[in-house]
Design brief:
Hypothetical Protein, Haloacid Dehalogenase-like Hydrolase, Chain: A, domain 2, Rossmann fold, 268 residues, single chain, eight-stranded mixed sheet, alpha/beta, 2 domains
């Protein structure tokens, strides 16, 4: 019996228009009513998923959410269970890399503020800020407050640009950090002890569940660590080829009731 369901948000829980399908709302509410833990696992901060949690009826203090791709584990009411940030020196390194390779970037602090030294903020960072109900601050490395904690750094640019630099970013930053392509337009750098799988395993143990009682649903490479620690892993039909190779089962797409079908097959 599944007691914990971990679900990625963008292009998994949400359809292509960034909305919840009615079928998704119905099955998640049904699961919550049966005391099944439904945990949203996202690269977004809590503010960026809060309205979806409310729509889904995941509002109690005994419900949980994994944010910043696993860097923060918290209750849906904002009580932090675990948080892992980056050393502030990463901002200067990312800033220098951005200038050398002509790629746009930002870092996100513990208050969800998006910070960059790029004077011409691109459309991808603007959408990122809008989706996450966050402000954008223009700050040079030496202007960053010393007491700010950086949760993650993000190269946010066009797909072709990130395709071009991805291997070098992994080579440059991967030895000391967790580097993952979260989506076509986002190449993220986080604390080395962070990913969605580590966060899910922490929650499983915290709640006293066994691995076979856990299901994970996702669509991208940053969801693969969840697949590896879940008893049942499900990938969306719109998922990447890498994610599909790592999942146990494939459901319909995020536009075709994929979440509802997975819940009906494996949860109920």
């Amino acid at each position: 019996m599944i007691k914990l369901v971990a679900i990625d948000v963008d292009d998994t829980l949400l359809n292509s228009q960034g909305r919840l399908l009615q079928s998704t709302i119905e099955v998640v509410r049904k699961a919550v009513e049966r005391d099944i833990k439904v945990v949203l696992c996202s690269g977004r901060p809590l503010a960026g998923v809060k309205h979806f949690l409310n729509e889904l009826g995941i509002v109690q203090d005994n419900q949980y959410v994994v944010t910043f791709n696993g860097a923060v584990i918290e209750t849906v009411t904002g009580k932090t269970l675990q948080k892992s940030g980056l050393d502030q020196t990463i901002y200067e390194k990312i800033d220098q890399y951005s200038k050398e390779y002509g790629v746009d970037y930002n870092v996100v602090d513990e208050n969800s503020a998006i910070i960059t030294s790029n004077l011409n903020v691109n459309r991808i960072t603007v959408v990122q800020a809008w989706e996450n109900s966050a402000g954008i601050l223009i700050r040079k490395p030496d202007e960053l407050p010393k007491d700010d904690q950086i949760i993650k750094a993000v190269f946010a640019d066009e797909k072709v640009k990130l395709d071009e630099i991805e291997a070098d970013v992994v080579k440059t930053f991967g030895n000391e950090n967790y580097v993952v392509r979260a989506a076509d337009n986002f190449l993220e750098i986080m604390h080395p002890g962070v990913n969605k799988g580590i966060a899910l395993e922490f929650l499983r143990k915290e709640l006293g569940f066994e691995t076979p009682e856990v299901m994970a649903i996702g669509d991208e490479r940053n969801d693969i660590p969840m697949f590896k620690v879940a008893g049942t892993s499900v990938v969306m039909a719109n998922g990447s080829s890498e994610a599909k190779r790592q999942a146990d089962f494939e459901t319909a797409s995020n536009n075709q009731d994929g979440i509802a079908l997975a819940f009906e097959q494996f949860v109920f």
